[in-house]
Amino acid sequence: MRAKMRLLGFKADSVKPLNEDAAAELGAELLGELTIFVVACSCLVLEYSRQQANHRRKVKERRAAWSALRDEVDHLALVLEALQAQVQELAPPRGALEELQAQMREVRTQLGALTAPSQPPPAAPKLEE
């Protein structure tokens, strides 16, 4: 009873002694409230630790996914560099195409010059009077 009075903010010096039944009931009530308080606090602590574990697991999964994505990007960058090197090897030099086109024009003009004299000129139409 003195502890209850102190908790409520009263002076506990002048408390009459309780009979045995009232003291037992008050002790049982205090024990029941204490049990409920301990169970509620335990639930809160367990829920907090569960939430923290879930949060740590999610962070770990995100980091693993991020790391996998970074590794994939690095791998794709290497593949891209290799493909670019292959294209560089297979592609003709930049001036080679223009050079080939110029050579083709020269050959065509030479062929045009060679075939022109060998062909007979077209016949002029005859006019009858």
UniProtKB/TrEMBL annotation:
One of its GO terms (biological process) is regulation of lipid metabolic process. InterPro entries: OPA3-like. GO terms for cellular component: mitochondrion. It comes from the Eukaryota. Keywords: Coiled coil. The keyword Acyltransferase does not apply. May play some role in mitochondrial processes. Belongs to the OPA3 family. This is Optic atrophy 3 protein. It comes from Galemys pyrenaicus.
